[in-house]
Design a protein that fits this description.
Elements: E1 2-5, H1 9-21, E2 27-30, H2 38-42, H3 54-62, E3 67-70, H4 81-87, E4 90-93, E5 99-100, E6 113-115, H5 116-123, E7 141-145, H6 149-159, H7 172-180, E8 185-189, H8 201-208, E9 213-217, H9 226-233, H10 236-254, E10 261-266, E11 269-276, E12 283-295, E13 302-314, E14 317-320, E15 324-325, E16 343-344, E17 347-349, E18 360-366, H11 369-372, H12 380-397, H13 409-419, H14 427-442, H15 454-461
Parallel strand pairs: 1-2, 1-4, 2-3, 4-18, 6-14, 7-8, 7-14, 8-10, 9-10
Antiparallel strand pairs: 5-15, 11-12, 12-13, 16-17, 17-18
Helix pairs in contact: 1-12, 6-8, 8-10
The chain binds NADP nicotinamide-adenine-dinucleotide phosphate (NAP).
The site of NADP nicotinamide-adenine-dinucleotide phosphate has 25 residues, from α6.
Length: 464
């Protein structure tokens, strides 16, 4: 009896592998949302529909007769981890990173400052953020902190012509807001330089090529130190990204085209304060400190150091795209610095004293961003899932995971959830929701119109 907590790419790749590797494995996949697919549904940008094709593969996994989906079940609320561990031989935690890093600077909680995750969940119709009060009409400028691929996604959605989004699965409230948006300038702020930018070439090329958008990169920011050159030469991706920025700087300077919008890449600036409006109710801008780079001891990595030279940038929409964060569960050990559950090839480690040997929690595993931290693309989870499933199979073969008749698996969990009145969503129920969303989308020429609340989903399924 295997239980997987989380139905995103990591959880479903792990399920697929286990089904292939063990003819006896019976797998139950839990998700706190009524819908499966995690980040593919809530994270992947609506104008990247081709990336979502992987849901066909995941649907085949979910429709296996040896697998059951339990949507709308929140572990830690509807059922405790300790209960799952009593019901299943194997529990795999795959619930990802559903929180954000914070900057810890004044004004971070002002209205108008959001994390990129919240903004992404808003335009992707995630039930937690569908009602986020995003105002795209208060100024002509949006600031994005961070220069990773999430920041690039968010910039692209803000800058792309709305006509190009109409035929995607973007949430209808987001499409309406973007249609009325007054944002003409987007600033992407990096605390380090163009040699350290963390987005990848494909994503950068796409945003640089947006129709009607003038890209501004200051040539002075493109000067490289000797260590920068070493860094760039050590990574093909960084080299390509740097070349693209250089080309963009040249094109911007010589362009005679007229543009509707601007995208500014700003380097060597770190945020020090979110500035409030006079009434103190919302954000009006950002205080930035110029930085220089300093080599970290014993590493090729360079870090940004403040120079005490400050400047202000006005905006009433500031999105922090400085990395996702996983949340701890129960009293399991958790590495707060790296934002992951300490593990040995996916085996969850017990809290042990500093000099004690690492000890594993029997039958408990972790996969995906919760295992390795919030980096990597969807495909990275395939490799991660392979590693974890190999650990499980090895533990079964070595007798660490003996078949325990007291583990009731699916039967036991179903009784428990029914007793508690949890309105769980089965795979068949999800198929009804899926068909409904596709039908609603077709009326508007969209691949689907996502339901934005759990209540709506439960209603469509007809669970009372
Ligand atoms: P990321 O690539 O790690 O980028 C985080 C950004 O935040 C970096 O620019 C980082 O700068 C900056 N940052 C972190 N702490 C900061 C601080 N205290 N002050 C100022 N800046 C700070 O993460 P991400 O963009 O959230 O993406 C997560 C993962 O998902 C990545 O692996 C990404 O490739 C992947 N993803 C892929 C796609 C795609 O393939 N299309 C789309 C979205 C996401 P430093 O470099 O200076 O730390």
């Amino acid at each position: 009896h295997v239980c997987i907590v989380g139905s995103g790419p990591a959880g479903l790749y792990a399920a697929e592998k286990l089904l292939k590797l063990s003819a006896e494995a019976k797998i139950d996949v839990f998700d706190r949302l009524p819908s499966p697919f995690g980040l593919v549904r809530s994270g992947v940008a609506p104008d990247h529909q081709e990336t979502k094709i992987v849901t066909n593969q995941f649907t085949r996994v979910l429709s296996s007769p040896r697998l059951a989906f339990f949507g709308n079940v929140c572990v830690g609320k509807d059922i405790e981890l300790i209960e799952l561990r009593k019901l299943y031989d194997v529990v795999v935690l795959a619930y990802g990173s559903e929180s954000d890093n914070s900057l810890g600077i004044p004004g971070e909680d002002l209205y108008g400052v959001f994390s990129a995750r919240e903004f992404v969940w808003w335009y992707n119709a995630h039930p937690d953020c569908a009602n986020l009060d995003v105002d795209l009409c208060a100024s002509d400028t949006a600031i994005i902190l961070g220069q990773g691929n999430v920041a690039i996604d968010v910039a692209r959605i803000l800058l792309r012509r709305v006509e190009d989004l109409k035929s995607t699965d973007i949430a209808h409230h987001a499409l309406r807001a973007l249609n009325k948006s007054s944002i003409k300038k987007v600033y992407l702020i990096g605390r380090r330089g163009p040699a350290q930018i963390s987005c990848t070439a494909k994503e950068l090329r796409e945003v640089l090529g947006l129709k009607g958008v003038n890209v501004v990169v200051r040539s002075s920011d493109l000067a490289l130190s000797e260590i920068d050159v070493q860094e760039i030469n050590a990574s093909r991706i960084h080299k390509r990204v740097y070349e693209l920025l250089n080309k963009a700087a040249m094109n911007g300077k010589h362009s005679l085209e007229s543009y509707e919008k601007e995208l500014h890449f700003v380097f060597y600036r770190q945020p020090t304060e979110f500035l409030p409006t006079e009434d103190g109710h919302r954000v009006s801008g950002l205080r930035l400190e110029k930085t220089v780079l300093e080599k970290e001891l014993g590493s090729i990595r360079q870090r940004a150091v403040g120079t005490r030279v400050f400047e202000n940038l006005s905006s009433s929409l500031i999105l922090k795209s400085i990395g996702y964060k996983s949340l701890p569960l129960d009293n399991l050990s958790f590495d707060h610095r790296k934002g992951l559950i300490p593990n040995l090839n996916g085996r969850v480690l017990r809290v042990v004293s500093k000099d004690g040997d690492p000890e594993c929690e029997p039958g408990l595993y972790v996969v995906g961003w919760l295992k390795r931290g919030p980096t990597g693309i969807i495909g990275t989870n395939l490799i991660c899932a392979e590693e974890v499933t190999m650990s499980i199979i090895k533990d079964v073969e070595s007798g660490i995971l003996a078949n325990d008749p007291s583990h009731e698996g699916r039967e036991g969990v179903t009784v428990l959830l029914r007793e508690r009145g949890v309105k769980f969503i089965s795979f068949k129920d999800w198929e009804k929701i899926n068909a409904f969303e596709i039908m609603e989308g077709a009326k508007k020429g969209k691949p689907r119109e996502k339901l934005i609340s759990v209540e709506e989903a439960v209603k469509v399924v007809g669970i009372s």
